Fold this sequence. Notes:
By secondary structure, the protein is of the alpha/beta class. Helices cover 39% and strands 14% of the residues. The chain is built from 7 helices and 7 strands, in the order E-H-E-H-E-H-E-H-E-H-E-H-H-E.
Amino acid sequence: MLSGLTGSTAVVTGVGGRLGRVWTRALLRAGADVFGLDRVKPDDVALAEFGECTQGAAGRFVFHYGDVTDRPSLQDALGACLDRLGPPGVLVNNAGIDQPPSADAGSWLFEDIPEELSCTVLDVNAVGVLRTCQVFGTEMARRGSGSVINIGSLYGTVAPDPRFYDHIELDPPFLKPPAYGMSKAGVAALTRYLAAFWGPSGVRVNTLSPGGVLGGQDPRFREKFVARVPLGRMATEDDLVGPLLFLASDMSRYVTGTELLVDGGFVCW
Length: 269
C-alpha cells in the first residue's frame, strides 16, 4: 500500500505533455491532488482522463498557467497552489523540450546547430528545473518535508547512437540536439546538489530517467533501438508509473540523491 500520497498535493510541470499526463494520472490514482502547470492548457482528452482519475471528487486536479522560464509566473503559481490545494508535498519537474527522430524534424550540420535552439533547450530543461526548485522546493524545505522528482533521460548518461537515425532521409542527417543530453545531465547534477542541500530540511530529491518510451516512432528506429535493450522492448507508459510512485511516496523515504534509470537495461552493456 502506498504511504504518504493520499490527500497530499503534487505539483507537475509540463502537465499537458505526453509524460506529464502519465505522471498526473498515476498521482491522482494514488490519491494525491495534482496542481498542474503548463504554458498551454491540456487538451480536452487529457482533462477528461484526469477527471476519470479523481473518481468524481471535484477539485483534485487544478490547472494553472505556469512558465518554467519565467520566475514571477512560478511564484504566482505557488501562491495559487497554496490557496487551491495546500502546500506541495511532491514536485515532479517534467517540463522540457525534446526532438524525436523524424523526417519532419529540422536538421543541421553539427557546427551549424542554431545557438538559440541550444539556449532554449537548456533554459527550459535545466534552468527551468532550477527555477521551479527555487520556488516550490524552497517552500517544501521551509515546511520540513517533501519529495522532488526531476525527470531526466537516458541521454543524460549515454550519447545517442547516430546509427539509430541513419535510415531517416534528411540532408544533413538527423542529429539529436546535443543540448538535450547536456540539459538532462545537468538535471542529475542538480538532483545531487539539492539532495545534499535539503536533506537536513527533510526534502528528498531524486532523478527519474526514462529510456526510450514507445510512442509513434518509425518501425526501423524501434527495431534498431530494441536490439540494444536487454529486455528486448521499448518502455510503455505503464512501465514508468511504479518508479514514479516509489520516489513520490514514503516507500522511498530513505532514498535521495539518486538517478533511477528506467531503461530496460540499456546502459548495462
